[in-house]
Amino acid sequence: MSAGSGASGGTGRLLSHCLAVLIAAVALVLTGPGAPAAEAASVCSGRPRETLSFAAGELRIYKARHYVCALTVAKDPGARRAMSVRLQPRGGHPVGGGGSFAHRAGPVTVHALNRCVRATGAILGEQRSTGWILC
Questions:
Q1: How far apart are CA 56 and CA 82, in angstroms?
Q2: How crowded is the C-beta side of 13, counted as CA atoms within 13 Å?
Q3: N or C: lower Cβ tally within 10 Å for the chain?
Q4: Distance CA 72, CA 56 (A)
Q5: What does pTM read for this prediction?
Q6: What angle do CA 82, 87, 89 make, to 5 degrees?
Q7: What is the mean pLDDT of residues 11-37?
Q8: How many CA atoms lie within 13 A of 23 on its CB side?
């Protein structure tokens, strides 16, 4: 083993440590020190387009160029409860489902370039629907 190979191994480790510190610093700047990781980014890509509120939570709809995404979010996360979300492109079949969730049902995504969609969300039997939107 030459003396040069030991020095390059140390340089590689130093570089990887510096890179890890840089990535952690960037993540801290982007999310802030008190922001929880789950709240730092939405689970749906695209921009928020519609929000329908009801007593136990809300139905959120996001639109990207080719896709629409929907989810039902509880106002008070904690205990598991019956929740559902459904999204249907015009001329297509509804996609989604339900179950027992503590925080949210979904996300559900459908391809909807130049198509209207209809979204439905429910928490504990209370339901909200959009009708045909994003046409």
A1: 11
A2: 5
A3: N
A4: 10
A5: 0.69
A6: 165
A7: 49
A8: 6
